[in-house]
Amino acid sequence: MKSFLAALLAILVSVTARAADMPVKAPAALPPPYNWSGFYLGANVGGAWTSGSLNIPGNNLYGGLTEFIGGVQAGYNFQAGHLLFGVEGDFDGATFGHPVLPTPTLGSVSQNWIGTVAGRVGLVEDRWLFYTKLGGGWVRSNASLNFPGVAWQGSNTSSGWLAGVGIEYGFKANWTLKLEYDYIGLGQWTSPTVPPIPLNRDLQMVKLGANYKFESGLPDTVAPARTAHSAEHSEDEDLAKKSQNPIADLVSVPFQSNTNFNAGPFNRTQEVLNIQPVIPLRINADWNVISRTIMPVISQPSPFFNNNTNGIGDITQQFFFTPTHPGTLIWGVGPVFTVPSASDPILGTGKVLFGPTAVALVTPGHWVIGVLVNNQWSVGGNPLRPPVNAFLAQPFVNYNMAHGWYLTSSPVITANWLAAPGQQWTVPIGGGFGRIFKIGDQPVSANIAGYYNVVRPTGTPSWQLRAELSLLFPER
């Protein structure tokens, strides 16, 4: 987790010094700094995992839990200059029923909910808050054991200490976005059996959350600062180009449906709905950080039975550091990581993934042309699951036409470097069309496209139908 924490801390960048005022002009009035004080209420989603062991005599095939978590948090902040003091409590439901290998007959371990109460101490730089947490946590767990000589099941609510670190950003007057890592030291839960079986349950969590502040962070007369970005075009085409740019200064919430045909040995349909909020975070006048989250909701065909498993997959978070005044080439680089949040083992890797990501594009005339790439390696998670070394490249080409219409092609090329030769690459080709329009006063972008995998591993889908609806929130 050292690499993840280093990336988390790197996002908090010092604000650059402002240039001296010209002597012939009065200094421009600076907007008041963001006010973090007051009560707030919010929600979060993320992943949690343990790396403990279930020490069954002669069999240690448990490896730990990975699970999707989601819930609510509430708290109060008191700001004194650049210091912040606060208290926060949260409650998350946890969903993962993990069998003890090699077969479920040996038993299972699951968690139902996680609650924490902690004090927060932070450093504030206008809209940015870097904080640490210290407090306590409670976890409700279930376990069952069923192997020769031992048959037992039980439930337990245990408590432990909590330590965490996070970054929060005020992207609207009453709204903040946060990314947080927590560790709960729970110790062991020992079964009352002969022999006794100790279960290590120390828990790690990564959460992405949003908070509503009941007290505005800005005076009513102050509008959020904007960054100059695009040239003068028609309103529809300008908005279309921003929506097609992964690192544009534009808040958007895409809902992307990927329907993959002929998957698995029974030629079933796989459905992946990606919920992908994109939020620009301002560092200073010269730099932004673009936060891009991907939360998949999956219907996955079984490799053994003629049915599907439904649930949440592993959540991916990307951060792109990008200049606010780029030249002809628009670019961004940063970290990408994936937390093991799958609600069922078949829906995720069971691993914590981390790596670099980058995007580059140009926008000549009516075109938006570029590519997004990343590579992730497994750095934690269940030690019994296979390691991961995965590459992704997504070239995109868009041509914008009159009345908000556009043509689009954005195939997702992937490679599993650890797969057998001839089974590593998935390479699709195809494209489609879309349009920018409004539903009432809400700008949206909708498109539909089809792709055929000209190169693919055995048993993976051959065709994909992609449909996307994006809610766009341009500054007014």
UniProtKB/TrEMBL annotation:
Lineage of the organism: Bacteria, Pseudomonadati, Pseudomonadota, Alphaproteobacteria, Hyphomicrobiales
Q: Does the keyword Membrane apply?
A: yes
Taxonomic source organism: Bradyrhizobium arachidis
Q: Which UniProt keywords apply?
A: Cell outer membrane, Membrane, Signal
What Gene Ontology cellular-component terms does the record carry? cell outer membrane
Under the heading InterPro entries, the entry gives:
Beta-barrel_OMP, OMP-like, OMP/PagP_B-barrel
**Quick one: signal sequence residues?**
1-19
Name of the protein: Porin family protein
Give the Outer membrane protein beta-barrel domain ranges.
Answer: 8-214
User: Which cellular compartments is it found in?
Assistant: Cell outer membrane
- Give the family per the record: Belongs to the Omp25/RopB family.
Please verify whether the record's keywords include Membrane. yes
Tell me where on the tree of life, at the top rank, the source sits. Bacteria
